[in-house]
Structure formats: structure tokens, C-alpha cells
Design goal:
- The chain is 31% helix and 22% strand.
- It has twelve helices and 24 strands.
- Strand 23 and strand 24 form a beta hairpin.
- Helix 1 runs parallel beside helix 4 and helix 1 runs parallel beside helix 8.
- It is globular.
- The chain starts with 19 loop residues before the first strand and ends in a 5-residue tail after the last helix.
Length: 487
């Protein structure tokens, strides 16, 4: 759908005159995932994507364990697996080559290398299949918000009305800039060239050259079609690098350009690190790279955005559907911004460990030794793959606030029960109830022997919201996360 063909479809139920409940700016992985999550709750969604065509370059990204879990929760993992390649999860921190411990706490203990355009296509198809509308060639030019909603002006002059606007429009987010949210941090100090092209020398010559260079430089990689090499200086990334830029830097770093030719795509990235001061101002919110940018080391950026969408989607839907407690939407920033802070810190650390300075190389050697201890290695893997996140839900067992792995249940597997994006009460006592919230919380009695606590309340994103066996205590937590009972 392009902007010339687009007409709004206001709902007859919408007495406030809103064309949509939510307008999402940006149809990358974060925006498409958010739209799908909102549609699980019948929220009327329009996604605006300024580009009219998919990206012309094919960048390979890694989906980490937590993102794979989330894809499994929504029934998307099998589709992604058909287009990706499984890789070991070891070596994700600063590319230090250590195998992962054997007993990682996930049923999906691998990385999935997959072209980013494929991820975007599958997620967009998923959102559209659920009823989201996507407008390609539609860019936000301005907006005004009031107590009832947001009026969004498109670049072609159209004006649309929605209850909320979410900026998922990348590190140079128009929505964030128009909102006036500060984006403090550090500018790029290092730049890296990355592209796909043919290599004109035998594989053994490539392997020997890579091994020699990586003894001292970690920001270097060369394999069939894929080239990563430090740039000479931080430049203007509005202009893509040329093949000659790659050849020149390969000769400077490796002593040869390996005969590279016939590029498929050429790009560059910097190591700027920035975090939005706020994720929400009134009825406008930020997610994904619009809220945070950082170096790509560890491959966490796309994953962080997907997880933002999972956290925000059900909360924003609850607000729109009218059952959200007053404080529920505020928990989006309270939970996700500290996660982004931690990612920014660990990518800063990883970039230092890629430095060629003697001090940084000494620290890298020391950390390489420490990672021989399983607990050190596990902790770093959990940081990068987001499986170690624990939201602060107050005092309680260690499992409280953490995500639950995909345990077996009588009906098959736990994640299969979360596909509708609803809460889930796992009740081994057989006597607890969600108490008039059957429209937003499912219940499974006597779920599994794998569950070693009496009862667990899961949020739609799979995080444990309550553990116990007392109905009155459960009622308090149900009200906190799922509002008051109806009917």
C-alpha cells in the first residue's frame, strides 16, 4: 500500500474520532513486532514506513536465545528457522572464542544467523495477517498530542488521528526529535566497514590472512562474501563506502586486498552510544533504536528492540482496552530502560576489549582466562542473550521477575500456551482462579511436574509476576498486572 492509495478507516465505536488506536512509525523488526503484539488484543494499528521498497542490501543478523524464545511464544520460530542457520552460542562476548556451558537454561540454546530483510518480511506478514495496516512510503512529518490522542501529519500532508504514537523509526528517529527527548551519550570514535563481495584468492590464503590479523585486531573478518574491516577514520555515513575504500583498508590492515570484487552491498557502522532520557511523553512512546543505539558488537541491537516491543505491546493494548491499572504503562520505561543501560555498558566494555592498545589486550587475555570458569562464561552469555534479565517486582524468590523457560506441560509446551499474548496462571493446587479476568488471563490446572513451586502467574511476555498458593495474595498481583475483574 502506498500513500496515494491510503484512506483511513475510522471505527464506528470510536466516538473520539480516532482513525487508529496506535500509529507506529517504522516497520523494521521492532515496529512490525509491536504491531503484531497490539493486534493480538484487537487494537487498531497503522504502521508507517517511509521506505517504499525493502532494503537493497542483505545484512546477516543473529537472533539470540531470548528472542528465539519470544518467537517460539508467538509461533514464529519454525518460519524463521527455515531461512536461518543455527550457530553455537559460545563466543558472543567480545568474540572471545569460548564454548558455551552445556546446561544453559533455555530450550533454544543457539544463535540463529538470518538475513535481516527476512526477519522484517516475516514479522510484517505476521502483523498484517493479524490485521495491522502497513503504509509504505508514509513518513511522519509532524504531530501534536493532547489529552485524548495524537494528530499525526504525514510527509504528503495527510493528517491522521490516533490514541497513541510509537516511534520505532531508528537511531535518527524523527519521532524522538519532534518529541524533544534528549538523546545523550558518546559519538562514534571508531568506524567499521562492512559489506558482501567476492574474494579473488584461494580459501587457504583467506584463512591464513584472517588468523594473522586477528592476533591483534578483533574488528576484522573475511569469509566468502562477507568483509568486516576497520575504517581509516570516522566519516559521513550518509554516503556509503566504495569498493576502493574496502580495498585500501584491507591493504592497510592485512597487507593485501584479497582481490575483492563484485560487491553486493557496502555499508559502515560506528560505535556511537546513546540512550533516550525518557521512553514516554504523554501519548507518544519510543522503542528500539529510537530509544537506544550502541555498537553492534555482540549482535544485541535488533534483539533489544524486539524485546522492547514484547514488553510494550500488551501494556499499551491493556491501556487502550480499558483494563490497565494506572501504573502499568509506566512499567515499560521502568523495566526496559535499565536493560538498555546494561546493554550499552556491556557493548562499551566489548569495544574496549577490541582495542589494539596494550592495556586493553592485557585485560582481554585476563578475561579469556576467567571465562574458563563456567559461571563467568555463563554470566556473560546471559548478558548478551538477555536470558539473565530480572525485572524488579519486589521481594520474592529468585524466579520472580525472570522469564520462565519453555517447560513441558500436559498440553505440549509452555510457550505454546502463550501464543494469544495473554497472561497465564499455572496452578498446581487446582483451587486458584484468575477471578473475573478470563478475557486476559488463561489458567492451566496441574500443569507439570517440572514446576517446583505451587503456582506461577506469567505475564504475556513470559516473565514471572507472582509465585505462591494464596488466593488473596494472587488477587493483589492480578490487580497489579491485569486490572480489576469484570463481569
Amino acid at each position: 500500500m502506498n500513500s496515494a492509495q491510503f484512506t483511513a478507516e475510522p471505527s464506528s465505536e470510536d466516538t473520539a474520532g480516532h482513525d487508529f488506536d496506535v500509529i507506529v512509525s517504522g516497520c523494521g523488526p521492532t515496529g512490525a513486532m509491536l504491531a503484531a503484539e497490539l493486534r493480538l488484543h484487537d487494537v487498531r494499528v497503522l504502521v508507517l514506513e517511509k521506505e517504499t521498497e525493502p532494503a537493497s542490501f542483505v545484512r546477516i543478523v543473529a537472533l539470540h536465545m531470548r528472542s528465539l524464545e519470544l518467537m517460539a511464544m508467538r509461533g514464529l520460530l519454525d518460519r524463521l528457522l527455515r531461512h536461518g542457520r543455527k550457530r553455537p552460542v559460545g563466543g558472543v562476548f567480545a568474540a572471545i572464542p569460548k564454548p558455551a556451558p552445556e546446561d544453559l537454561d533455555s530450550e533454544y540454546a543457539y544463535l540463529l544467523g538470518i538475513p535481516q530483510p527476512v526477519v522484517v518480511r516475516i514479522l510484517e506478514e505476521h502483523a498484517v495477517g493479524l490485521g495491522a495496516r502497513v503504509l509504505h512510503g508514509g513518513a511522519v512529518a509532524g504531530f501534536e498530542q493532547d489529552g485524548e490522542g495524537v494528530t499525526v501529519e504525514l510527509a504528503d500532508g495527510q493528517r491522521l488521528r490516533s490514541r497513541y504514537l510509537v516511534g520505532c523509526d531508528g537511531g535518527r528517529s524523527t519521532v524522538r526529535k519532534l518529541l524533544g527527548v534528549p538523546f545523550p551519550g558518546e559519538p562514534s570514535r571508531n568506524e567499521t566497514l562492512m559489506g558482501e563481495m567476492e574474494v579473488g584468492v584461494p580459501p587457504e590464503e583467506v584463512s591464513a590472512g584472517v588468523a594473522r590479523v586477528r592476533e591483534t585486531r578483533q574488528r576484522f573478518w573475511l569469509r566468502p562474501y562477507s568483509v568486516v574491516v576497520p575504517a581509516a577514520e570516522v566519516g559521513d555515513r550518509a554516503q556509503p563506502p566504495t569498493l576502493e575504500d574496502f580495498r585500501r583498508q584491507l591493504r592497510a590492515v592485512a597487507g593485501t586486498d584479497f582481490g575483492v570484487h563484485s560487491p553486493r552491498w557496502l555499508s559502515s557502522f560506528g560505535d556511537a552510544t546513546r540512550l533516550a532520557e525518557r521512553y514516554r511523553v504523554g501519548r507518544v512512546l519510543l522503542a528500539g533504536d529510537a530509544a537506544h543505539i550502541h555498537p553492534p558488537t555482540g549482535g544485541q541491537g535488533l534483539n533489544l528492540g524486539l524485546q522492547d516491543a514484547f514488553n510494550l505491546g500488551w501494556k499499551l493494548a491493556a491501556r487502550i482496552r480499558g483494563w490497565a491499572p494506572d501504573t502499568l504503562l509506566d512499567t515499560y520505561q521502568a523495566e526496559r530502560r535499565p536493560v538498555a543501560e546494561d546493554v550499552l555498558d556491556n557493548t562499551r566494555a566489548q569495544m574496549e576489549l577490541h582495542s589494539t592498545e596494550p592495556g586493553a589486550r592485557a585485560v582481554r587475555r585476563l578475561l579469556t582466562e576467567l571465562m574458563d570458569f563456567d559461571e563467568v562464561n555463563r554470566r556473560l552469555i546471559e548478558k548478551v542473550t538477555a536470558t539473565g534479565i530480572r525485572y524488579d517486582f519486589g521481594a520474592g524468590p529468585d524466579l520472580l521477575g525472570r522469564r520462565m523457560r519453555d517447560i513441558g506441560v500436559a498440553q505440549g509446551n509452555l510457550y505454546g500456551l502463550l501464543r494469544r499474548g495473554r497472561g497465564l496462571l499455572l496452578d498446581r493446587t487446582g483451587r486458584l482462579t484468575a477471578g473475573g479476568r478470563s478475557d486476559r488471563v488463561d489458567r492451566l490446572a496441574d500443569p507439570t511436574a517440572e514446576l517446583d513451586v505451587p503456582c506461577v502467574l506469567l505475564r504475556p511476555d513470559g516473565h514471572v509476576a507472582w509465585i505462591g498458593d494464596d488466593q488473596r495474595d494472587l488477587d493483589e498481583h492480578l490487580s497489579r498486572w491485569f486490572g480489576e475483574p469484570t463481569g
